Amino acid sequence: MHALIVVAHPDPRSLTHTVAARLAEGVSLAGHSAEIADLMAEGFDPRFNANDHAVHLKQAAPSADVLAEQARIDRADALVLVYPVYWWSMPGLLKGWIDRVFANGWAYDEIPGGKLEKKLGCLPVHLVALGGAGQGTYQRHGYSGAMKTQIDHGIFDFCGAPVVTSELLLPPDTQEPGAHLDTARAIGGRLFQAAEQVEAA
User: Which of 113, 137, 158, 161 has the lowest tally of Cβ within 10 angstroms?
Assistant: First the structure.
């Protein structure tokens, strides 16, 4: 099985990129394949433009870059997003990727009469966010719940994509990020565990 791991961070030496690489390593060690999509390095344009708006209204076809991203997701058996928390959400680059790629007609279908068809029910999603504040801050202000409402439910449930993993990795008690890397490898290792159990049954 194949995982698409999407990363949004400007520094390839960041902990975010290291976590993504370790997660891909876990997928590989479990006997599966993984592709890391580095949105910054690939130069993905996150700006929702006039053509994207026309696509939303079903008045135009998606542009080539959006079609390429949709095809990349279609080839995957699981989608993993690895990103730093910026202003209690995902970075603009990743949000713009979702804005443009998870388009009406592909990720969901708005049917006349107010009905909605969720089209990504076969796409398991795994979210790995890296925060800079401590657990107390997230609990005190309700940021964790707000992020789950906005991202897990607001984006992926709207499209029918089940969120299997939703991890928030916060600063460790020491300067060593080893625990986060172990967590990432473990997530990668069990990414397709449920599917394998179903196949074996």
Answer: 113
Tens digits of per-residue pLDDT, 160-177?
999 999 999 988 655 566
| Whole-number Å distance between alpha carbons of 49 and 180 | 37
DSSP secondary structure string for all residues of the chain: -EEEEEE--S-TTSHHHHHHHHHHHHHHHTT-EEEEEEHHHHT------HHHHHHHTTSSPPPHHHHHHHHHHHT-SEEEEEEE-BTTB--HHHHHHHHHHS-BTTTEEEETTTEEEE--TT--EEEEEE-SS-HHHHHHHTHHHHHIIIIIIIIIIHHT--EEEEEEE---SSS--HHHHHHHHHHHHTTTHHHHHHHH-
Integer Cα distance of 89 and 126 in angstroms: 16
- Please tell me the total count of domains within the chain: 1
How far is residue 5's CA from residue 184's CA, in Å, rounded to a whole number?
A: 12
Give the CATH number, domain containing residue 110.
3.40.50.360
Q: What is the pTM of this model?
A: 0.92
Asked whether 83 and 33 are in contact (CB, 8 A), the reply is no
Range of the domain at 40: 2-200
Spell out the SS3 assignment of 97-149.
HHHHHCCECCCEEEECCCEEEECCCCCCEEEEEECCCCHHHHHHHCHHHHHHH
